[in-house]
Amino acid sequence: MVVAERKPIEEILAMVADFKKVLLVGCKGCVTVCCAGGTKEVGILGSALRIARKKQGNPLEVVEHTLERQCDPEYVDQLAPMLNDNSFDAVLSMACSVGPQFIAKKYTIPVYPMLNTTFIGGALEHGVWAEFCQSCGNCLIHHFGGLCPIARCSKSLMNGPCGGSANKKCEVSPEIDCIWHLIYDRMVELGQLEKLRPVFPIKDWSTSRDGGPRKIVREDLKL
Amino acid sequence: MKAGSNLEKVFTQGHFAVTGELGPPRGASVEVIEKKAGYLRGVVDSINVTDNQTSVVRMSSVAVCKLLVDMGLEPNLQMVCRDRNRIAMQSDLLGAYALGIRNVLCLSGDHNRFGDHPQSKNVYDVDSMQLIGIVKKLRDEGKMLSGQELEGVPKFFIGAAANPFGDPFEFRVTRLAKKIDAGADFIQTQCIYNMEKFRKYMHIAHEEGLTEKCYIMAGITPLKSVGMARYMAKFVPGLDVPDYYIDRLKGVEKKKQADEGIKIAVEQIQEVREIPGVRGIHLMAIEWEHKVPEILEAAGLLPRPSVN
Questions:
Q1: Is the Cβ pair A171, B86 closer than 8 Å?
Q2: Cα-Cα-Cα-Cα dihedral of A36, A37, A40, A42, to 10°?
Q3: Which residue from B73, B225, B243, B250 has the fewest beta carbons nearer than 10 Å?
Q4: In whole angstroms, what is the distance from residue A131 CA to residue A142 CA?
């Protein structure tokens, strides 16, 4: 899933400093799963903003609403009745950055992101998420014991650990596992170490962001 | 002869090679380079010019190599994968060759988080292994990665680095073998302090026949003080500094620690010379270039052979 986290409250307060009434919109997709922008987080941020502004003697009216998903036009359309009377100064989106862009595409009103979209990852344990994928568009993990050196090696090395790998940790931080050490251990475990012996060829990054913004068209699904 | 560089000739004519290292200045000063180069003149076979080492912005490695060429010294161009994509790399390699640079050392590079621009966007389009392959393709096929024929082929002597002390140890010789397969003609190792581990590494490499396929140079970095030894042991990832060196330096009064460090370096040079498959040393006297002649003199490696 897309993992995101809320922007610091100070940054958000600065964004909304000039507004009197805003629509705060959450998303029931990925950001609900990673506890960054679901109904619960909309409620918390809404309250925090009201309290902070009340303390400043400059109250802010915050209307809360959570959509099924902000990355689908059919759900974004549901905001129309609320936005059509022009009573809001801005929309604050609590989705990944697709959400505010979809809202901005449909409505002529300033839209502000409340979250920082951080990575494609998974939960390691309750409250801990980590990056597993860089969406390079050409998955190669079967060559590496099912582990991704593109996303999980700090240098995206494809031919083994760099000279900085020590005690199973990355040179960048002792908090980061050396994925190449994990790949090595995994290949030993699978009895496939010899598969790491050939020099892995240079990657085609054109399927990644480097080919320009990407698009998938599924003719079979088009209406 | 693949490139005909001085370093390659020293190897092919059976001499024990010595390379030095020059860290470019954090600025545009030619004087700094002239001064450092002066210490290395005539005492090493080739001078590595580091490429924004530790991710700190310094004068371009290609530019410094060219300055060395103009001074009549032989450079070894270091190139890291951190800052360039395959387009910039090939372009710089062609330019470097045109400027008279004949040796190139292919590295992945320290991560940019360590340097003076940790907010930068790094590249890592290719890894060090793949960069070796790019240089080899340019040289041996006369083609760019794209398959485009070159107008003038750069004949480089291709180097790579190896760290026998990184983990997992068991994979380190495999990685060396991969670099040789990719096209490395010579290897310079990370600084060696744990001689026992290095012997083990070289033994495996020798048994596997790798030392016949490639010239391996042992990395030596003199310890200037107990503080430096402690720092290297603690903070440089993938470096193995055994306690006995720290204790040895600690046992000497502060003023004499530098001399003791030089003594250790000379002993290390003697030790690596005895290890089968070691064909030279790469002396990385970090910001201590002026001590290089003294170390090499004491190690009996001067004068350097004159080759044709």
A1: no
A2: 130
A3: B243
A4: 18
Stated pTM of the model: 0.95
Quote the CA–CA distance of A159 and A198 in Å, as a whole number.
Answer: 8
Q: What are the structure tokens assigned to B166, written together?
A: 């990184």
**Separation of alpha carbons A42 and A20, rounded Å:** 18
In three-state secondary structure terms, B1 is coil
A210 has a pLDDT exceeding 90: no
DSSP 8-state symbol, B139: I
Alpha-carbon distance A131 to nearest alpha carbon in chain B (angstroms): 18
Q: Which residues of A touch B108 (CB under 8 A)?
A: 155, 157, 162-163
Q: What is the mean pLDDT of chain B?
A: 97
Label the pairing between strands A128-133 and A115-125. antiparallel
Q: Which of B14, B174, B20 shows the shortest CA–CA distance to B103?
A: B20
Residue of B nearest to A149 (CA): B127
Torsion of CA B122, B125, B129, B133, to 10 degrees: -140
Q: Report, as an integer, the average pLDDT of B249-269.
A: 96
A62-105, pLDDT tens digit by residue? 999 999 999 999 999 999 999 988 999 999 999 999 999 999 99
Under an 8 A CB cutoff, do B130 and A199 touch?
Answer: yes
CATH architecture of B6-299: Alpha-Beta Barrel (3.20)
Architecture of domain A2-118: 3-Layer(aba) Sandwich (3.40)
On the question of pLDDT at B236 being above 90, the answer is no
Residue of A nearest to B107 (CA): A162
Confidence (pLDDT) at A144: 98
Ranges of each domain in chain A: 2-118, 134-211
CA–CA distance, B148 with B155 (Å, rounded to integer): 17
> Cβ distance B126 to B165 under 8 Å?
no
A14-42 per-position pLDDT tens digit = 999 999 999 999 999 999 999 999 999 99
Provide mean pLDDT across the span B30-54.
97
**Segments of A84-183 assigned E as strands:** 90-93, 111-113, 115-125, 128-133
CA B283 to chain centre: 8
Alpha-carbon span B26 to B208, nearest angstrom: 42
**Burial of residue A137, with CB atoms counted within 10 A of its CB: 0-12 exposed, 13-18 middle, 19 or more buried:** middle
